[in-house]
Amino acid sequence: MNVKSKTAKAAFEKTKLPHIKNIIIVASGKGGVGKSTVAASLALSLAREGYATGLLDADIHGPSVPTLFNLNHQRPLSIEKEGKTWIEPFDRNGIRVISIGCFIDPSQSLLWRGPMVTNALKQLLNDTDWGVLDYLIIDTPPGTGDVHLTLLQSYEITGAIVVTTPQAIALDDVVKAIGMFNNKNVAVPVLGIVENMSWFTPTLHPEERYFLFGEGGGERLSQRFHIPLIAQIPMNEHIRQSCDEGSLDSLFQDEQIRRSFTGLVESVLAQRDLNILENTTKRANATPPQENVKHRPLLFHASLEGERVGDDPLCKLMNEQSRCSQETGDDTDTEGDRIDDAIYK
Asked: How far apart are CA 239 and CA 140, in angstroms?
């Protein structure tokens, strides 16, 4: 267990989101290792155990969560509550889900630099009506860039889970991600390593294992950094089909996959005994009743020319950022630059 960074002196004053007990970042450093699938399956596993769980897709440029939950052509509603407009997350399999991908056409790219990305991320975090959550799982993009720095310097993050595959080309980048969390100014413990795509087992031959991406990479990483290897997740034909069809819950019909994620959740929950996670309690009904709220559509589309249409908070942010960029010809963020310097000096 890597707890050294937990006791390190934080370089920034961080915000604790009200009513959210634990925020867990899922990171990889490397793209294509199945991080989004692991994050979504972790959230689903926690919800199946009876914990109030949310999932934020923080991969602004390449969101995968809408596909995993079949949300590509659905738009969230807004909620008028206590004099403020909130974004209402989707409820999928007992998980409260939101992603920037829910606001844009799936075929459209977002040509944003750092300041717009980080401000959109903050809006998704601060203006989503999460309710009371035991766990908020955040699926982060590959690398160690703006999204990670914003989360680490602005919010109280309980811990991180690092995802890798066994092969060396993935391990090289995951080492960098672990180094980010271990930085003395970050103060976020790595709860464990998940080795995804550990082997391929054909569904018709469950006794066979084919190590397509090598073997033992996660264990070597664990020994090197003294971080527990908390799950090895195999791959088969059903995983691809379930993810592409947005029927992630069907993954748990596969016994090997179910066991892997059950072990992952048990390892995460075990951190409560080490006083790393805030204590949580299973509940029969994790969704609190909504009173005195009004729902209406979020009138929004993100075009690359002209202003976005709508009056929701995220839309207003995008229009403001776009106007500032056009007026100044520059969207650099001096505060963000100072943050980067402070973390990495």
From this structure: 21
Residue 250: partners with Cβ closer than 8 Å, 6 or more residues away: 238, 242
- What is the residue extent of each domain of the chain? 4-344
Q: Is 189 exposed, middle or buried (0-12, 13-18, 19+ CB in 10 A)?
A: buried
**What 3-state DSSP class applies to 112?**
coil
Long-range contacts of 67-71 (CB under 8 A, 24+ apart): 67/106, 67/243, 67/244, 67/246, 68/36, 68/37, 68/40, 68/243, 68/246, 68/248, 69/40, 69/93, 69/97, 69/246, 69/248, 70/245, 70/246, 70/247, 71/97, 71/99, 71/101, 71/102, 71/246
User: pTM value?
Assistant: 0.79
Residue pLDDT, tens place only, 262-312 = 888 888 888 765 656 666 666 544 444 444 555 555 544 333 333 344 555
The third-level CATH classification (topology) of the domain covering 4-344 is: Rossmann fold (3.40.50)
Contact 110, 100 (CB under 8 A): yes
Which helix (H) or strand (E) covers residue 66, if one does? helix 65-68
Strands of the chain (E only): list them. 20-27, 53-57, 77-81, 84-87, 90-92, 95-99, 133-139, 159-164, 190-200, 229-235, 294-297
Q: What is the separation of C-alpha 152 from the centre of its chain, rounded to a whole number of angstroms?
A: 13
What type of residue sits at position 248? Answer: L
CB 57 within 8 A of CB 63: yes
Q: State the Cα torsion 294-313-151-16 to the nearest 10°.
A: -50
Identify the band that residue 5 occupies on the pLDDT scale cut at 50, 70 and 90. very low
Cβ count near 157 (within 10 Å): 23
Residues in the chain: 345
User: What are the phi and psi torsion angles at 242 (to 5°)?
Assistant: -65, -40
Residue 8 or 79, more confident? 79
Phi-psi region of 246 (alpha: psi -120 to 50; beta: other; left: phi over 0): left
The CA distance from 171 to 18, in Å, is 35
Does residue 47 have a pLDDT over 60?
A: yes
What are phi and psi for residue 220, nearest 5 degrees? Answer: -65, -40
